[in-house]
Amino acid sequence: MTQHAAFWDKVAPKYAKSPITDPAAYEYTLGRTRSYLTSKDRVLELGCGTGSTALLLAPNVAQITAIDISPGMLAIAREKAEQAGVNNLTFEVGAVVPTQGQYDVVMGYSLFHLVPDMETRFAQINALLPKGGYFISKTVCLGQRSAGISGALKSLMIRIAIPVMQLIGKAPYVRSFSVKELEKAVAAAGFEIVESGNHPKGPPPAHYIVARKV
Can you give the chain as a three-state secondary structure string? Predict the structure, then answer.
């Protein structure tokens, strides 16, 4: 985990300045997420990065605890929260799903393709939530087959480029799976998927899921 944290610490300043790839898709899923939140909710965000999403959702809930493996990312997130005057949001260093805490919603954006134990984490999230609690995520599905020649070629180029970039320290661990495999893993952990869709469509697609603990 130390190696992974060092990678994200190194890229944190550049990451913080990078524009959102598809602003329309981001705003859409942000709006859909807000529709499931209430002013009484206690929210946990896993892999919060520099805190942009947590900051935007903080006015809609009672409290957000946002964790990330990278102290460098969190330093930027805390600075942003202080500048914005947000006081119902805390940032903590963490590499795993907490085993304790009272949360109504758990979120994880652009995270689960970056960890080798996705299925285990889904089960841990389920155990942390009360019955009826929401798990909301958005995950890049690098293993999803693309329609059309151009889409297939783009997906192939990405899959070829990632191992090369990893060898020279320019990319982190990345796992490849399809939309169907992702949804199957979420359901197997004890969740009912109540909403899903690709936003953006890709390739590769970023698959948005709202799931309820059954």
Answer: CHHHHHHHHHHHHHHHHCCCCCHHHHHHHHHHHHCCCCCCCEEEEECCCCCHHHHHHHHHCCEEEEEECCHHHHHHHHHHHHHHCCCCEEEEECCCCCCCCCCCEEEEECCHHHCCCHHHHHHHHHHHCCCCCEEEEEEECCCCCCCCHHHHHHHHHHHHHHHHHHHCCCCCCCCCCCHHHHHHHHHHCCEEEEEEEECCCCCCCEEEEEEEEC
148 lies in some domain: no
- Give the model confidence (pLDDT) of 5-41 as tens digits: 888 999 999 999 999 989 999 999 999 999 999 999 9
pTM: 0.88
Model pLDDT, residue 105: 98
CATH code of 89's domain: 3.40.50.150
What is the residue range of 184's domain?
2-141+173-213
106 belongs to a structural domain: yes
Total domains present in the chain: 1
User: Predicted confidence band at 125 (pLDDT cuts at 50, 70, 90)?
Assistant: very high
Q: Could you read off the pLDDT of 67-79 as tens digits, one per residue? A: 999 999 999 999 9
Within a domain: 160: no
Asked whether residue 147 is domain-assigned, the answer is no
